[in-house]
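Model it.
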Amino acid sequence: MQISPNTAVSIHYTLTSDAGEVIDSSIGGEPLAYLHGTGSIISGLEKALDGKEVGDKFTAHIPASDAYGQVFEDRVQVIAREMFDGIDNIEVGMQFHADVSEGPGIVTVVKVEGDEITIDGNHPLAGMPLNFDIEIIDVRPATAEELDHGHIHGAGGHHH
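Modeled.
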């Protein structure tokens, strides 16, 4: 069976930067399970998977525009330490839920200088082309319940 909209798909992947740095991998763990055609994975990867079958192994280079988009400079802000009320130790790399220009989102602390904290509301992989080494593990028709819920159930998927 080929990967197409409304199929339940399981893949093993290794995600690397253009410099070859491993960013994430499912190898040694559960495969990534998702419902194809619902936008639950980045658009470039979904396009690269379309039409593939169980056992296929391939590499996909996804430009930033089809991954996490460009970096928006207006999402980087310097705010006062007092905005982090109740948090004594603020360090680079910490992430917080906050209201960003598009609504609720995640911001990452990228710089700490005295009472000034620089936060970045861009996705950590924004502006980066991504490289995936993929192996298709399973492809099956999604159940009516999975289609209704918008995600797959069972091993590697969502459990109710």
